[in-house]
Amino acid sequence: MLRFGWITLLLFPIPGYLIVYFTKNSSFLEFIDVQSYSIINLVLGLELGVVYGFISYLFIKAPFFEKLPNRIDHLVQQMELKVSHGIFLSLCAGIGEELLFRGGIQPVLGPFVTSILFVGLHGYLNPLNLRFSVYGLIVLPFIFLISYGLEPFGLLFCIGAHFSYDAILFTFMIKEN
After folding, report:
1. Model confidence over 66-98: pLDDT tens digits?
2. Which among 4, 17, 45, 111 has the fewest CB atoms less than 10 Å away?
3. CA of 114: how far to CAs of 41, 138, 164, in Å?
4. 12 is in which domain, residue-wise?
5. What's the number of domains the chain is made of?
């Protein structure tokens, strides 16, 4: 699992950068959105992720989701991860996936399509599994908030929100074990 974290962190940003380089002729500094870096934007993103992480965790524990095959919380528990592993994986996903989706894909497809693509590629919009799709509909507003927050708050906001959302969920799931 930790290998997937490294792959996400190191390889996902590459196609994101190539997309904006070839479609918008953007430099690497424009791609990583350095001009919008602000501690306030980072803190706002972290807060959003924490709040939505708690909300999502409450939904995951609802009886409706008990019958889900391959529940993520059960998979995490089976991996016997430590909290530090969860934080590392959250950081990798927050940086790697946001650079790919918000930094690379969203400037081309826009926030709405990118959000649906993001949730769909995570497997949460599955027409063959109602419960996965319901969870996808719970996650989708959070992804919309991140996507539409890119313009006013910048990429660091998106990274912070994604990181803290994942970190909250990983921490709860690991601690349950």
Report:
1. 776 556 666 677 788 899 999 999 999 999 999
2. 4
3. 21, 16, 20
4. 2-176
5. 1
